[in-house]
Every structure is written in structure tokens, then in C-alpha cells.
């Protein structure tokens, strides 16, 4: 369950409470390496209507509000997008996060997809309590080592000091095994395959919205099997579900592979991971699947009677994807105009902006807009008609671009006369992304919009893939690795060196082994560090 | 948010950890008023296949395992059903509960229905952090009084003593208002209407699975409005959503009304409630909707500028339904054979049990069963084919009755020859509920099963309604009230007495005012306690 368990990169910043409500303060406190905000060029973007309201008479075509250009300061840009697209706010407790409706709807789309896949692959949802006796955490040696520094501990209940301290779930392997031990008796009870969608709490010192917060939401799958082969197959099956989700739904290309021993989840024998390249080229561990072997079943005595009547410890897996993935989507696709959402996960796939100048035009334009909305809604497209009087079309264009809506439809008086409309793609800026004269005829419009959404979905994936591939450098020596990392790129090279050397790379370059990718080049390999034979290439990168 | 805030009835029992895995121990420890378990007659029911497996050669038509008859010991029956239908287990921490897949699927069905209704009525889902600064809880005077005795408090984070203690969310009004204060500026930001599906923690001393646990799952809606009228309308709208849910989905008839001041949620100006009568005639508060007035907005400074430019505090509501409702469904419909689920919330609506004796019959019977399964699945019915070799048909009948599946289809060799099957209703025991010779022809079968499911759904509601109505007694004096309560019934009578007298009733009879029902008898009324004029009748009952 290590999706937020990455070693903290040297480039992470400490974000004080409510910092992204106070951008200048935040810059000052956290990003002292950056140029002062006074000299920062800004892209004009609108504030949220909820944050600042204008009166009916105060229409503006260029609304106030600014967003830092992505190329200039990726971290500031990320926080600006989160604020202006109304994705999240910090909670009152340091490092906690309020997930606002727009981002929560993205999370719901993620849940909807994965829930179907989990059930198709034989898993049932259920719920384990979040309060875990402290002693449970101590039962598996590497687990306690990994998690004890970041536990939130309940010591008072109902006004009284508790006899045994309770841990607020940082992950659930321990309590799951406590229960599995009661439910599993014979091989006929296996495989036991469950999942839960819950909150987890980890006392992180360096936090960043979505990527690393004191509390986050995730699903955690837990399974028990009769053989090591079945457990391995399950761990691989679930990482494959995540790969497909990332590619097909989020348009986030990922490299799937195995973690090094150093980076393996505390308590697992093997961790599989999907690693994505963000817009600043840093890696994001976006989902993990662990083969737990018998580590927890031995610690908790989870045994079954096999077909030959012998008692054996079960073989287990666990796997998780969290709200961190929402951060990954922002940082993969977003641009200087704000968020850019893959159509399959977008809460709003199409926004309709009606345009009129004279009041006598209004009725006709709105009537056409409403009928277009109905047509699209009926065909299952998530559509929003922004017919508010309080904002100009220009303001609305900017606002919905900030929100990352894949397609904008514009309808003006001339369009109404000709029975056509204008379609703009969020992912292709300016006139290039704009097509005039699309027919309003329902069947034509519906198939045009659906095709366009598919095209955008594929295009986002392709663009992210080519960005990633052009930023991975094949290296054959430590010097080449250092150059690649210092350029902010990912380095891929043969590796068979020791853990000590792996930690040395981290110390000297800030990069870690993200994974040994499943996809390996053919031929003999020589370890980039030692010159010894190597069986695999590894990918090194700085990461979130 | 008081769905688990009921005053603890004198008849609640303290259930030790894992007690319903150890029934005898439990009896001994908790229910000392009951006859010893040795003399307890038992209804034969099967153990769960996960709990006890039999070998292939060990087929039994009358499986071991027992369930206490409902009429004999309602509490023991309830715990037996929860265990044998695999609904829940206690977690390792006293009073916490593991919700097993079958019960969780009921909860998911509840979520699916309510989510649609919440969105239709203009609410968005989102997520607020669960860790709340202790000082927040103290800001609203009656809120702190109500909740401080049952808080779980985090005092250690990341290995260090915290400067300010943190409360694990018992309900979220305080943190919601902290955020609303940042989001609300003008009347244009109103109404603000959100909901979250989360876990909450309350340090209850007397716990019982589903009904009252240290941690439970719920949804909590939170809204802010510009006028008291709008807030009142919203509070009423949401209690109405709950009424419809209870009646139409859960087949649980409820009486909707207003709580007395004494029973109003800590921090609300008015609490609306739905009250259901359980099989033992005790009342269950099954959902609440609160008009919070300006109590929290004053405490947290949640203001908006109204249309005339004046600053005003917002008017708020909150409303909740929890996993407690699953307990309500068990205790409304269940019988001596176990759980009985309303078709609309049943994870499995139809179970198919194929029956054969000679191995040459097996192939034909299974083929027919599979094709019936396909037909029903294709028409959207939740169907399960129990084709396991390890259990006899008789065992399966008992098992799926225990699980409360509304319809059982039996298919034997003779049925296959005649192209028919047998349909048994869970809610009509024995031969009376069994219809032979139903055609397997897809369109006939589909419409027959759908009609039957509708019939069962209505029949469960009617049965529960008539049970309830026959157990509510109209009373006109305190003596009549005492008689009714001592008979275990609900008493309905005119009430305009003081809080002191309300508390006296509780002390002397164990009954509380469940609500002043919306539906009131016509005509002049005289307070049953004081003889003074009364405007309303109240309902008194013992409750969970």
C-alpha cells in the first residue's frame, strides 16, 4: 500500500496550512529558490465565482485573477490550478485536505471504473474498522519500521486514557489478517478476495495537495491464496488493472515494473508499481500491487488446511490506488490555461456557452442551446449549459478552460440561423482547435461530439507518451546517469549493484530506482555502476 | 446528525469483543436475565461455508448450527442472524465492527439509491478531513455538551505529542462551517449544498452491531441558505427523501415527525426524524434531518452579503442516514429462519438451486439452471446459481433462507422434462409460498419473477405496517401510557408538558418521546400528563 510511501524528494516543499489561499505568503515561505512573486508574469484567469462575486452590472470579459505559467514554476502552477479550478483546499489541521466537489467527481469516476473491474476479477467490497490496536502494527517487523514514524495515535476515548493506544489506519494489512485468521479454515475458503474504499491517515511532514496529505482516500484490495503462484498471479493481475485504468481512462501513460528491494512496501516480498512522468518530468508512483508472501500470515497466524490435510500459512497480496492519482492527472495534462481532463474521467465533458449581444437574440440562442444540451444529455454525454447572465462569454471560456472541460460548444445568433454551432477542443489551443459550422442535427452532432471526445482521449495519451519517451535517456555509466538526472530526465540503464550503491545514487543525484520495467531490452547488459553483468535495466528518476 | 445519539435504553446490552463468535460466553456475560443456553430450543440452521467446511464426502441435508428463535430472545436472535448470514463481525477494538461483503452490498444498494436522490435535489458529494481541532468542538455550546463525552482523541502524530489535540470526526458540522466561512461571500454563493459518505467515530459504551458501534459509516449532508425559510424547506425535503427511501426501498414503514427539545440534535434548532418499529416493538431512529438555524454560522462566523448589501449569518441544515439502517432492515423483516431482505436492496434477488439425484440427471439440470440464470441476469435481476457439489439442496435452501434471498428457484429432472420450474417465496414459509410449474420460457419467466419481486416488496411493507399499527396504542392519561409501554407497545397521546415531566416518563417507564408525528389527529387535545390543552400528540416508546 505504498502509494504515498515514497522517500521524500529533496524538491518537495513544505506547504503551510491554507497556503494556497495565500499565494504570496506561500512563495515566500516555501519556495525561496524561486524569483520573487513581484516579478512573476501571470496568465490571466478568472477567480472562482464562489470566491469572488461580481454584481450584475459588473460584467468583465477579462476577469481578474492570475495563474503562474507552468514552465516558470511548476509547483506554483500546480497549486494555482488546484485553487482556481476549485479542486481542493487545505483543512484546518496542517496537511489535511478538503476535496471539493469538482475533484471529488473525478474520484467518483475513478471509483466507478475500478469497482467494475474489481468485481469482474472476483473481489467483494467490505469495511474494516479504522482503529487498530498499536500492538498489531508491531507484529510484522518491517511493517512497524516503515509505518511507526507516521502514525496518528488515539490515546483518549470517551474522556478516558485508553489502556492500549490505537492507531488510526495507515493501511490495513494488520487488521485484515486479524480477521482473515478467523474466517479462513480450509483451502475451500480460498481465495479470499476483498477490497475497501476508505480514508487512511499518515503523519507526513511534507505535504502537497493530492500527492501527499495527512489523510487521503484510496481503495485497498486484500487477498489470501493457497499457493504462492496464485498470489503472484493476483498481484500481477491487479497491477495490470491499474495499467489499463491509467492508459484507457486517465490517459496517463505509465511504466509498469517491479520495485527494488529498497523501495518495496514495508511488509511485502515484492512490490509492483506504475510510474508516470509528470509535466516537470518528475516521476509519480501512481499505484502499487504487493505480493506479501507469507509475511503477514506468519505474523498473524493466518493458516489453512490444504487438500492433503496439512496446515499452511496463506499467501497474500494487497494493492491500492489513491486520490494521489487526481494530482497525477493534473500534472500530466494541465497547461498554462489550467486543468485539462481526459474525457473519460471528466465530470463535465462538454460545456455549452451561448453568445448574444442584443437582448432580442437571447431567446433564440438560449432555445438552441437548451435543445443541444438535451440532445447530448440523451446520448449519455456529461454536458453543462452555462447560461448565466452574470458573466461574459469570454469569462466563461477562460473559466471552463481552467476547469479542463474537454469540449466547448459556442452558439451565437448566426449559428442559430444556419442551424450550426462551433466546437472548440480544450487540448488544441486557439483557432486550430476550433471548428465552425457543425450541424445541430441531433444524429450528426452526437456522433461528431463522441468522435471528438474519443480523439481528445487518444490525443492526450499520445502527447503524454511522446513527452515521456523523449525524456527517458538510456545510460550505460554512472556519469551518463548523473547527466540525465541533472537535466531533469529519467535515466534507464542496466543495474545489478548493491543497495548501498542504490542509496549512494539517491544521495548524490536525488534520483531513486522507480522500477525494473517489465518491458526489458534484449541482449547482454553490464551494470552501469559496477560493470558486472546485469539481468535488467532499471529506471532512475527524481520523484514526488 | 444524531442517528446514533439516542439515549441508551435500559435494555441495551454490553456486547464484549467477538462475542457473537462465542455465543455461550456472550449469553453468560450479557444476558443474565435470559434462561441458560442449555435449555434454549434452537432452530436448525447451517453454519457459513467459510466458517466450517465439510469434505466432499461429508454431505449433510440437515447442517449443524443453530439460531435462537426470534420470539424467545430477540437480542440473541439478532446476533445469531448477523453471524450466520455473514453480515458483520466485531473488530479487535471493543465496539468496532467489520462489515462483511454481504452486508456491505446492502449498504452499497442504499448508497446507490440515495446518491441519485441527493444529486437530483442539487447536492454534490465531496470530502472533509476527519481530524478536527479540539477547539472547534467547543465553539458551539450545546454541540460540545452533546459530543464531548464520546470523542476519540488523537494526541500523538508522527511520534510526537501534538500541541492541539485532534478529534476523530463524530460528525462534521464544525469543520464544514470552518470551510463554508471561506467559501461563502455573497448571496450568490447560496444555497451551498454538499454531502459526504464517510466513517464517523463515537466512543459509545454500549454497542451492538449496526445499531451502535464505535465507528460507523454514514452520509452527512450539509447545506447553507440565505433565509430561514429555505433552510426549513431543505430540512423537510431531506427527511422526505428518507421517508421515501424507507418505504419504497427498504420496505420499512416509518413515522416521520419532529423531535422534542430534549431529543433534538446537539446544535440544532429542530430535528426531524423517521422512527421505525422493530420486530420486538422497540423504536429505531432510522434517519434525521436537522434545521441548524444560525447556531453554527454564529459560532464560526459564516456570513454572506445579502441582496441589500447587509452581512447576515447563513441558515443551515444537516441530515444523515447510517449503516444503522442495515440493522433496522434485519430487525424489521427477519424471522426464525434468518434474514429477510426487501428485493430492492437485496444483493441477491433470486437464487437458483439445481436438484439431481443420479449423476446422469446432473448435466441436463445444470444446463437448464444456467440458461435460467442467463435469462434472469439479462433482464437485470440479481441472480445467483448455487451449483456447488459440496452441499445438498436442503442445506442450500436453509442457507439462502438465512441470507434472506427473496426468491428461490428449484429445478429438478422432472422440471427439465416439462420445461418448468418451482418458485419459492422467502416471505411465505413452507408450501404456501411455493408455486410449481412456472414456465422456463424466457419472457414468461422474466415477467413472473419481476411481478413476484414487486409483490414481495409490497408485502413486506404491508406486513410491517400492520404489525406496527397494531402495536401503537392511543393513550389519554399517564396511566394508560404506562400500561402501553409495559406491554412493550408504543403510546400515542396529546402532550404539552414540561421537559421535567418528559424526563420523568423516561425514568419511570424507560420510554422517550420518539417524535411529534407530522400526521396529527384532528380536534381539541388535552395533555395526557397535565390535563392542559395540547396542540399535538407525541409518540412514546422504548428505543434502541
Automatic annotation (TrEMBL), chains A, B:
PANTHER family: PROLINE--TRNA LIGASE, CHLOROPLASTIC_MITOCHONDRIAL, PROLYL-TRNA SYNTHETASE. PROSITE patterns: AA_TRNA_LIGASE_II (PS50862). Gene3D superfamilies: Anticodon-binding domain (3.40.50.800), Bira Bifunctional Protein, Domain 2 (3.30.930.10), C-terminal domain of ProRS (3.30.110.30). It catalyses: tRNA(Pro) + L-proline + ATP = L-prolyl-tRNA(Pro) + AMP + diphosphate. NCBIfam families: proS_fam_I. Residues 94-342 form the Aminoacyl-transfer RNA synthetases class-II family profile domain. Its EC number is 6.1.1.15. Coiled coil: none annotated. Residues 49-63 have a biased composition (Basic and acidic residues). Residues 32-45 have a biased composition (Low complexity). SUPFAM superfamilies: C-terminal domain of ProRS, Class II aaRS ABD-related, Class II aaRS and biotin synthetases. One of its GO terms (cellular component) is mitochondrion. HAMAP family: Pro_tRNA_synth_type3 (MF_01571). GO terms for molecular function: ATP binding; proline-tRNA ligase activity. This is proline--tRNA ligase. Residues 32-69 are annotated as: Disordered. It is an enzyme of class 6 (ligase). The keyword Cytoplasm does not apply. Keywords: Aminoacyl-tRNA synthetase, ATP-binding, Ligase, Nucleotide-binding. It comes from the Eukaryota. GO terms for biological process: prolyl-tRNA aminoacylation.
Amino acid at each position: 500500500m505504498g502509494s504515498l510511501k515514497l522517500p521524500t524528494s529533496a524538491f518537495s516543499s513544505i506547504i503551510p496550512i491554507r497556503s494556497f489561499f495565500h499565494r504570496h505568503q506561500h512563495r515566500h515561505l516555501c519556495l525561496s529558490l524561486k524569483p520573487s512573486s513581484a516579478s512573476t508574469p501571470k496568465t490571466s484567469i478568472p477567480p472562482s465565482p464562489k470566491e469572488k462575486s461580481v454584481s450584475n452590472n459588473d460584467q468583465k470579459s477579462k476577469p481578474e485573477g492570475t495563474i503562474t505559467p507552468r514552465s516558470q514554476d511548476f509547483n506554483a502552477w500546480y497549486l494555482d490550478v488546484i485553487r482556481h479550478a476549485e479542486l481542493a483546499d487545505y483543512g484546518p489541521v496542517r496537511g489535511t485536505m478538503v476535496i471539493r466537489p469538482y475533484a471529488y467527481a473525478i474520484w467518483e469516476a475513478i471509483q466507478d471504473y475500478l469497482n467494475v473491474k474489481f468485481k469482474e476479477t472476483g473481489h467483494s467490497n467490505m469495511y474494516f474498522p479504522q482503529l487498530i490496536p498499536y500492538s498489531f502494527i508491531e507484529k510484522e517487523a518491517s511493517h512497524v519500521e516503515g509505518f511507526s514514524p507516521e502514525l496518528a495515535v488515539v490515546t483518549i476515548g470517551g474522556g478516558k486514557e485508553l489502556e492500549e493506544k490505537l492507531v488510526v489506519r495507515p493501511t490495513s494489512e494488520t487488521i485484515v489478517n486479524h480477521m482473515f485468521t478467523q474466517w479462513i479454515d480450509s483451502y475451500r475458503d480460498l481465495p479470499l478476495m476483498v477490497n475497501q474504499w476508505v480514508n487512511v491517515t499518515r503523519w507526513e511532514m511534507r505535504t502537497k495537495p493530492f500527492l501527499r496529505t495527512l489523510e487521503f482516500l484510496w481503495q485497498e484490495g486484500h487477498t489470501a491464496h493457497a499457493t504462492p503462484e496464485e498470489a503472484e498471479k493476483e498481484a500481477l493481475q491487479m497491477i495490470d488493472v491499474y495499467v489499463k485504468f491509467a492508459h484507457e481512462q486517465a490517459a496517463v501513460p505509465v511504466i509498469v515494473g517491479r520495485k527494488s528491494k529498497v523501495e518495496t512496501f514495508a511488509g511485502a516480498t515484492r512490490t509492483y508499481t506504475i510510474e508516470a512522468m509528470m509535466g516537470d518530468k518528475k516521476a509519480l508512483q501512481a499505484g502499487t500491487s504487493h505480493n506479501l508472501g507469507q509475511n503477514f500470515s506468519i505474523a498473524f497466524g493466518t493458516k489453512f488446511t490444504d487438500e492433503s490435510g496439512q496446515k499452511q500459512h496463506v499467501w497474500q497480496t494487497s494493492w491500492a490506488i489513491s486520490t494521489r492519482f487526481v494530482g497525477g492527472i493534473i500534472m500530466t495534462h494541465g497547461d498554462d490555461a489550467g486543468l485539462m481532463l481526459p474525457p473519460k474521467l471528466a465530470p463535465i465533458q462538454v460545456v455549452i456557452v451561448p453568445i448574444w449581444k442584443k437582448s432580442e437574440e437571447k431567446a433564440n440562442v438560449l432555445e438552441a442551446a437548451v435543445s443541444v444540451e438535451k440532445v447530448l444529455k440523451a446520448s449519455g454525454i456529461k454536458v453543462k449549459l452555462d447560461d448565466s447572465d452574470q458573466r461574459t462569454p469570454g469569462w466563461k471560456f477562460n473559466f471552463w478552460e481552467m476547469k479542463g472541460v474537454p469540449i466547448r460548444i459556442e452558439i451565437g445568433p448566426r449559428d442559430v440561423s444556419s442551424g450550426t454551432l462551433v466546437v472548440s477542443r480544450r487540448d488544441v489551443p486557439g483557432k486550430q482547435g476550433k471548428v465552425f459550422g457543425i450541424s445541430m442535427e441531433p444524429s450528426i452532432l452526437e456522433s461528431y461530439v463522441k468522435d471528438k471526445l474519443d480523439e481528445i482521449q487518444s490525443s492526450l495519451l499520445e502527447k503524454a507518451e511522446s513527452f515521456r519517451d523523449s525524456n527517458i535517456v538510456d545510460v550505460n555509466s554512472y556519469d551518463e546517469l548523473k547527466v540525465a538526472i541533472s537535466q531533469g530526465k529519467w535515466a534507464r540503464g542496466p543495474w545489478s549493484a548493491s543497495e548501498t550503491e542504490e542509496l549512494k545514487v539517491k544521495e548524490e543525484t536525488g534520483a531513486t530506482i522507480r522500477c525494473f520495467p517489465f518491458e526489458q531490452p534484449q541482449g547482454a547488459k553490464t551494470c552501469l555502476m559496477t560493470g558486472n553483468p546485469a539481468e535488467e535495466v532499471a529506471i532512475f528518476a527524481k520523484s514526488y
